[in-house]
Amino acid sequence: MTDKLLVMLTGDEANIADLVRDNPAAISAYLTEQFAENDLLKAKNALSRVMKAQNVQILARDAGLRRDALYRTFGGRIDPQLSRILRLFSAINVRACVVPVSGTDSPDGAAARLSEAFACENPADAIRGLSSVVKAQNVTALAHKLGMLRTNVYKTFGGKVDPQLSRVFNLFTALQVRFVIEGMQPKARAPRPKLGRPRKISHASRD
């Protein structure tokens, strides 16, 4: 564990905000630690801290979300949907990978297949990847682990529903996998729009 990461995990809100602001490497290290146990509360709080540390106006633009939707989704109170998390990740220049929980082997190479789906950075591909992995399992046994009806497993992970993070974490726990967040090189973005009204041109300057 790096000194910076130790500060993030034990420091106050200001320390965390300073370290994760416009810093994909710090964001990825912090989120990986907070996502490691598939714990929804820790993950929601971490996403909220990371979101609030950025320039939210620009972040909303890059994530393709309204500013109020960004605050509502990542304010730490609701269970965010997977597609919005992945759009946030793209906007802050990180991506999700999936690895087996330490000391275990994920069934049927689930971690590798999920990582491949998430690597596309397209939420629809990730959702289809989840569906493919679920359908490759003994769904009756998987439903028992998830505490869900078999029909609800197919409904939630059938590839058409955008699952909430809690559902994804429950699935990952059953499959003995977890997220690892990786930093990426910043993407080329549209220039930030200039604020304010255009400067008036005097009659003298026109002449």
Could you characterize what this model shows?
The protein is mainly α. The protein has one domain. Helix content is 58%, strand content 7%. Strands 1-2 form a two-stranded antiparallel ribbon. Helix 2 (13-20) crosses helix 4, helix 8 (110-119) packs antiparallel against helix 9 and helix 10 packs across helix 11.
Shape, per Cα inertia axes = globular
Bin the strand percentage.
5-15%
Report the total helices.
13
Q: Which runs of at least 5 residues are low in confidence (pLDDT < 50)? A: none
State the end-to-end CA separation.
66 Å
> What is the SS-derived class?
mainly alpha
Radius of gyration, in Å, reads: 20 Å
**Average pLDDT over all residues:** 87
Topology order in helix (H) and strand (E) letters: HHHHHHHEHHHHHEH
Count of individual beta strands: 2
Overall number of domains: 1
* Helicity range: 55-70%
Question: Taking strands numbered 1, 2, ... along the chain, how are they ordered across the largest sheet?
Answer: 1-2
Query: How many strands, which pairing sense, and closed or not: the largest β-sheet?
Result: 2 strands, antiparallel
State the main characteristics.
207 residues, mainly alpha, 58% helix, 13 helices, 2 strands, two-stranded antiparallel ribbon
Question: How would the blueprint of this fold be written?
Answer:
Elements lengths: L2 H8 L2 H8 L3 H12 L4 H14 L2 H8 L3 H8 L7 H10 L2 E7 L9 H10 L3 H13 L3 H8 L3 H7 L8 H11 L1 E7 L19 H4 L1
Helix pairs in contact: 1-2, 1-3, 2-4, 3-4, 5-7, 7-9, 8-9, 10-11
